Protein: UDP-N-acetylglucosamine 2-epimerase
Organism: Candidatus Halobonum tyrrellensis G22
Amino acid sequence: MAEAADGVDAADGARPTVLTVVGARPQFIKAAPVSRALAAGGYDEVLVHTGQHYDDGLSGVFFDELDIPRPDYHLGVGSGSHGEQTGRMLSALGERIAAVDPEFVVVYGDTNSTLAGGIAASKLDTTLVHVEAGLRSGRREMPEEVNRLMTDHAADVLLAPTERAMESLAREGLSERAHRTGDVSADAVRWARERAPAVADVFADLGVDDPPAAGEFVLATVHRPRNTDDGARLRAIVKTLTDSPLPVVFPAHPRTTAALEEHGLLEALEESESVILVEPVGYLGFVRLMSAADRVLTDSGGVQKETFLLGTPCVTLREETEWPETVEAGWNVLVGADPEAMAAGLTGEVPEAPADSPSPYGDGDAASEIVEVLDGVRS
Ligand code: UD1
Ligand code: UDP
C-alpha cells in the first residue's frame, strides 16, 4: 500500500483513488460538484491545491462556502511568469502524484494548474482525465488556448461539456477518448442557486452603504491579460463603466487592480459616482449578484455561461468565445473593447430569456455523468 507524505493513504484496496488538481478560482467552483459525486460514487479523493490563487477572496472563501474538503496538499506555488509558475507546479505535482499513486488524476479547465497537472500525470502511470475538454477560442495567443490544446492531447479521458466541444475534439482526432458529460458549471450554478438566498445581503458583506436595487445595476468583471495589459483597451473599458447610466458593481481581480494602478486608471474608478469598486466576491454572493443584475459585462469564461444559465444578459469584452451557444441564443453579445459596441451592449434591449430546455450545457448532472464515465473506464 502506498503511503503518501503527510499521511494520506493512497489505496486501501477497496476504494479507487482520484487525485484532483485545483489552483485557481474557477477550478474550486467546478471541482465542488465532482468532489461530492466522487464521494457518493465510492471514490477516495486526494485534493491538491497548487497555490496559483492564494488570496482569501480568490481561494479560501470557496473552501468555506462550497462544501468541499480542505486540500490534502497545498503546494504553495504562488504567482510568477508562465514558465516559472508552471515549472514549479509541474515539479511539485510530479512528486505528489508519484507518492499518492492514484488511479485517476483529474484536471479542470485551462489554467497553468491544468497544464502542469496534465503534463505531470501524463509522465506517470496514471489515467489523466480532463474536465472541460474540447473548448477552443481559436486564438492561439491566449495562454488558456495553449493550455487546453496541450492538456487535451495529453489526456486519456476527455470529458466534454457540449456538442461543440465534442466536434472540436473530433476535428483533432481525439474522438475515441471523448465523452460528452454536460457542463459541471450547470451543476455548480444549480447548487448555489438553492443556497444563495442564505447570503442575507451581499452588499452589506461587501461594505456597500447605498446598494442599488435588484435589476438596477450592472455587474462587471475583467481579468484577461488582453484587456488588463493593453492600456488603450483598459482605458476604454473604464470609460464605459464610468459613463454607465446604471450603477456598476465591479469586483476587481487583483491582476486588474494592479493594471488599473499601473495605467493610472484606479483613481478614476474609485472616484466615479457610477462605479462601486469592491474586492472579489464569494461564489454564493456572486451568483446572487449575477441573478439580480440588469446585465453583466465580463471577459470571464465561466461568467458568460453562468449568466446564460441564470437568465441574465451578458456583454462580453472579447472578440471570440469558447461558449458560442450563449451568443447563438442571443443572450450574449461579443463587443471586444470597442467603445460604441460596449455602450450599446450596456444600454441595448434585453433579449428574450433563453429557452429552458434543452440546455446546451446539460441539466446540472454532469458530475454524476463524470463518475459514470470513470466507472466505465475502470470496468
Ligand atoms: C488565471 C488563469 C485564467 C483564469 C483565471 C481565473 C492562467 C494562465 N490564467 O488568471 O485562465 O481565467 O486565473 O481567475 O492560468 N494574484 C494575486 N492574488 C492571488 C492570485 C493572483 O494578487 O491570489 C495576482 C498576482 O499579481 C498574479 C496575477 O494576479 O501575478 C495573475 O494571477 P495568475 O494566477 O497568474 O493569473 P490570473 O489572471 O489569475
Ligand atoms: N466568481 C466569483 N466571484 C467573483 C467573480 C467571479 O465567485 O468576484 C466566479 C464566477 O461565478 C465563475 C468563476 O468565478 O464561476 C469565474 O472565474 P474567473 O472569471 O476568474 O475565471 P474564468 O472562468 O474566466 O476562467
Observations:
- Residues 24-26, 52-55, 58, 79, 110-112, 143-144, 223, 254-255, 258 surround uridine-diphosphate-N-acetylglucosamine (ligand 1) (CB under 6 Å).
- The mean pLDDT is 93.
- The first strand starts at residue 17 and ends at 22.
